[in-house]
Amino acid sequence: DAGVIQSPRHEVTEMGQEVTLRCKPISGHDYLFWYRQTMMRGLELLIYFNNNVPIDDSGMPEDRFSAKMPNASFSTLKIQPSEPRDSAVYFCASSSRRRGGYGYTFGSGTRLTVV
Amino acid sequence: DAKTTQPPSMDCAEGRAANLPCNHSTISGNEYVYWYRQIHSQGPQYIIHGLKNNETNEMASLIITEDRKSSTLILPHATLRDTAVYYCIVRKSMDSNYQLIWGAGTKLIIKP
Question: Which of B43, B46, B97 sits opposite A109 (nearest CB)?
């Protein structure tokens, strides 16, 4: 298994541009999570999906952020328009309740820099 | 979910056992204790979890006190690659609100 795959690994964009982050969860996992990590705020849950359906998006900072999961093997997190304060590492993670709560598997993250 | 308290940083000599403490005095009966670690520039990695019995796997051991108000993660023979931030989290494993609340963790530095 290749694990959770995120792309791109690094993204540098100018303020005001649209940014799309991508995630491929582990096959068979029915939960998918998007996290953001900064030095100031640590790891923050943005949104999570169960069986491709968004369950809790209360962590999404504002309307500039949106996330989709069109099928079980793909999810996107979009920021439009991007702002410098969005600079962070964005992690995707997947899990399965069938594993009996054996934790999440995280991707390697996307480091976003908005200049 | 209950909150946890961890020391911000710890040192350990290479080859020795690293014992990382965690206090979770407000833990409820159906909450599990989870441990993750995050090596620099990588995503967090699941280590181990338990409810009330001590647990051991290929990575570590988890010792939970009888009153469940604290626990210790033990890395039996620490190596330089174990340098990371270690997070202790308590949550209801089967909660429908299936998420983890992350604290600041303990930065463990393994010294040669």
Answer: B43
Chain A residues with CB-CB distance to B60 below 8 A: none
Each residue of B91-103: pLDDT tens digit? 876 554 566 778 8
What pLDDT does residue B66 have?
A: 94
Tell whether A97 is within 8 A of chain B (Cβ).
yes
What Rg do the C-alpha atoms of chain B give, in angstroms? 13
Concatenated DSSP letters of A40-67: TTEEEEEEEEETTEEEE-TT--STTEEE
pLDDT in tens, A38-67: 999 889 999 999 999 999 899 998 899 999
